[in-house]
Amino acid sequence: MRSRAVLVVTAVGIATVAVNVMGVKTISPGTVVTTRVSNPAASTTPTATTTPTMSPAPLTPAPPYHVEQATFSLGDPSRDTPARGDVPAHAGRALLIVIRRPTGLPGPMPLVVFGHGWNVNPAVYEPLLDAWAAAGYLVAAPTFPDSANTLPGSPVSNYPEQARDISLVITSLLGGRAGPVDPTRIAVAGHSDGGTDVALLALHPSYADPRVRAYLSLSGEIPSGMPGPWGTPTSGALLVAVGTRDQYGLLPRSRQVFEAAKLTSKVLLTVAGGDHMGIYTGSSLQALAVRRETVRFLDVALRARGATSANLTSALEPADDPSIQVTVAPPG
User: Fold this and answer.
1) Which residue of 11, 107, 108, 310 has the smallest Cβ count within 10 Å?
2) Residue burial 266-275, b: 16+ Cβ < 10 Å; e: rest
3) How confident is the model at residue 330 (pLDDT cuts 50, 70, 90)?
């Protein structure tokens, strides 16, 4: 897994996912899980006195929420798609957006836009995306026309255009097409190449998006050969995560993202023995703990007051699994 806009709506498919503390259970597509609260039937037995009764108010959903999925297509004719092996380059960019959102939450909802890695697609990350959606976040995951493995040709890395794709998805969702979005609570996240896309958004002034308040770079890096400047001061909070046994040797390069960043607050999760993918999408206790740390980070980073270093320390330390080392940068 290494290395304006024209909006077109397609048919929407719905699936519901039940989330519990041990992982994610997928319900068959087209099946909607609902919880019905019934009121006791009124008694027909005469009584000496009659006391008026009121029906209980509808129950407000609470996390973990059930999760539903939708998809739509998004196009940008102003930018090109590069060649994918023997598939030639062509004008325009077309993205399929996968939405994971909490069922029954009226909103407006905080938004997380997620960038997948090289030679994969959003479906690989369902446990991670559903952990965020179950916690109350509207999650949007574009299928990049450069690096996805579901399209003809050979995947290629294209960090600059994928970073711009992420901003394009934010713009497309602010009108409410996938549900009401809170424009003051927007996060971007990504893994591997997607984590590198997030590094561009967080560290490089040419790709900065002032609407974003939280960044999650998961096993990403600062791309080699791409000119800076890197580390331009940016408001918001950054989480960088990486495993010590990452198959692509990303431990020092992900640390470089953390060290170069000049955000309001930042935190590094170093996962002892952690690999490249499984620490985010697996079913181990370690992976479950990593996902919970990302939810806690989002909860703190997107609250009204923002996140200070002290806030991150209080929320993330200690992690639920002893293999996760939490390093919060001191203020300053």
Assistant:
1) 11
2) bbbbbbeebb
3) confident
Tell me the C-alpha distance between 24 and 38, whole Å: 27
* CATH number of 213's domain: 3.40.50.1820
Q: Which domain holds residue 79?
A: 6-20+64-328
User: Which residues touch 64 (CB under 8 Å, ≥6 apart)?
Assistant: 19, 20, 134, 135
Burial 143-166 (b: 16+ CB within 10 A, else e): bbbbbbeebeeebbbbbebbbbbb
Q: Is residue 178 part of a domain?
A: yes
What is the pTM (predicted TM-score) of this model? Answer: 0.83
Q: pLDDT tens for residues 219-252?
A: 999 999 899 999 999 999 999 999 999 999 999 9
Q: Give residue 18's identity as a one-letter amino acid code.
A: A
pLDDT tens per residue, range 52-66: 445 555 566 788 999
Report the domain count for the chain. 1
